[in-house]
Amino acid sequence: MKRLIIGLAVVSVSASTALGQSIVGKASYYGYGGRTASGSHVGHMTAAHRSLPFGSRVRVTNLANDRSVIVTINDRGPFVRGRVIDVSVHAAESLGFRSAGVARVKVERVSER
């Protein structure tokens, strides 16, 4: 029974990030001078996601103002409960939530790596 529950959890997480699927949750932003998990740097329009492959592109839409941007996944995270994605500072500015720090967003995968 335990294996079945774990298997269902994995399937539901995978389905939520499949091409054309979307997930709604909180986004935050980050920026630092170090390297990301992929070995690159936080870029102009990049983001961190827990499971999407590096190089995947996703559309992030701020549900409060309907602004959206397309970012490239190049890092892992966020590691805060309830958050689904961390975007770069510039992406947060474009989405209109840099001053707030956190926003409710919809994340849609638009291309696969």
From TrEMBL:
EC number: 4.2.2.-
RlpA-like protein double-psi beta-barrel domain location: 24-107
Coiled coil residues, start to end: none
Pfam families per UniProt: DPBB_1
Matches recorded under HAMAP family: RlpA
Family: Belongs to the RlpA family.
Protein name: Endolytic peptidoglycan transglycosylase RlpA
Organismal lineage: Bacteria, Pseudomonadati, Pseudomonadota, Alphaproteobacteria, Hyphomicrobiales
